[in-house]
Amino acid sequence: MLSLGGLGAGHSVNELNWKMAQQPMPRAHPLPRVAAVIPAYRAGASVWAVVSAIGPEVERIYVIDDACPDGSGDIVEAKLAGERVVVLRNPRNLGVGGAVKCGYGAAYADGMDIIVKLDADGQMDAAAIPNLIAPLIDGEADYAKGNRLAHRRRTGAVQAPNSGRPMPTTRRLGNNLASFLHKAITGYWNILDPANGFTAIHRAALGAVDLPAVADCYFFETDMLFQLNLAEAVVTDVQLPARYADEVSSLRIRDVIWRYPLLALRRCIARVWIKYFLDDFNVASLEIIAGLPLLAVGSALGFYAWMEALQSGTPATAGTVMFAALPIIIGFQLLLSAIGYDVARVPTVPLSARTKR
User: Fold this and answer.
1) What's the rounded Cα separation, in Å, for the pair 333 and 273?
2) What does DSSP assign to residue 83?
3) Which of 5, 12, 118, 185 is positioned for an S-S bond with 124, CB 3.0–4.6 A?
4) Which of 53-77 are b and which e, b meaning 16 or more Cβ less than 10 Å from the residue's Cβ?
5) What is the pLDDT of residues 133-158, one digit of tens each?
6) Most trustworthy range by pLDDT among 11-15, 93-97, 203-207, 239-243
7) Alpha-carbon span 204 to 165, nearest angstrom
8) What's the chain's average pLDDT?
């Protein structure tokens, strides 16, 4: 149990609640080997603080200097490099995904059981790592990710003291919309905030995914979920606070605004093709086969009738309208049913549990 005497009279109730929430529960089995992977690019001013804030639950820390012009790796190496902190260097900038994959590979080769990924900009609270890895330790999930979107007043969550500004409202709304789209891409309809980079992965799940095929760019988090879904891994959300201060993101919107939609569409089509036609064929497969053509044909007929009515000045008859509307309605209902089937197929048995059988 957490001792209250060490808090002192100057600590607020909010700080007490936060520390109690962060206190890990006693466990009947030994803790696994935990590693942390930190990709670093233009993070010379913050990476040192991030590394030094990581608690003793993490056995080894891998800092990946992704050809950082600030010399992030040199900064860490000068102050903390040793048996616990390992600095890896990419000869050229590979992007956040490429850097994380480098760290994943090193941690996997060193026999780590759980690998946490957090960014070097300080937005992710290292004190929350015990909460993040708890579902993996308890055998409830293969992959855990932070969720910044749960509203504090609705969930009763306590924000960490001195945690900086909460997520801006405009960013929250954008993430909510992106979350819905990412659910269709990844197949994990049970999660929010899919682009959150504060994650933990079990060794069994890391060994089951096609890691080289995962995108090296900022599409990495979504692509990782896509690969995990193909491997039937269990993914869970962990409500964690985000901290927004004066960090400057290296993400350039103009570089991804055209690339992301194409990548997302390709992954969505690939997941449906693999899971409903190559690896399996079920009622949802039939609904997709029937629903898509009906929706397309009905839309084409409706557009043709509308253009013809505009050109002739004569309104379309009720029969013409129904002839176009009926395929649209049936096709839409079939696709909704297929989506419902996909929602019900979210993996529930962790890979780590299956490998023990």
Assistant:
1) 20
2) S
3) 118
4) ebeebbbbbbbbbbebebebbebbb
5) 999 999 999 999 988 776 444 444 43
6) 203-207
7) 36
8) 82
Nearest to 220 by CA among 184, 156, 267: 267
Q: Is residue 63 within a helix (H) or strand (E), and if so which, with residue range?
A: strand 60-65
Q: Which two tokens stand for residue 302?
A: 């409706």
pLDDT above 50 for 4: no
3-state secondary structure 155-209: HCCCCCCCCCECCCHHHHHHHHHHHHHHHHHHCCCCCCCCCCCCEEEEHHHHHHC
Per-residue model confidence as pLDDT tens digits over 274-285 = 999 999 999 999
* Residue 81 CA neighbour count, 13 Å, CB half: 13
CA–CA separation, 291 and 340 (whole Å): 14
Residue 150 tokens read as: 């749960």
User: Could you tell me the sign of the dihedral formed by the alpha carbons of 96, 173, 148, 239, in that order?
Assistant: negative
Rounded CA-CA distance 19/12 in Å is 11
The number of beta carbons lying within 10 Å of the beta carbon of residue 49 is 12
Q: Residue 174's CB: how many other CB atoms inside 10 A?
A: 11
| DSSP class per residue in 325-352 | HHHHHHHHHHHHHHHHHHHHT---S-HH
Count of residues in the chain: 357
Q: Which residues of 187-196 are buried (b: 16+ CB within 10 A; e: fewer)?
A: bbbebbbbbb
Judged against a pLDDT cut of 80, whether residue 356 lies above it is answered with no
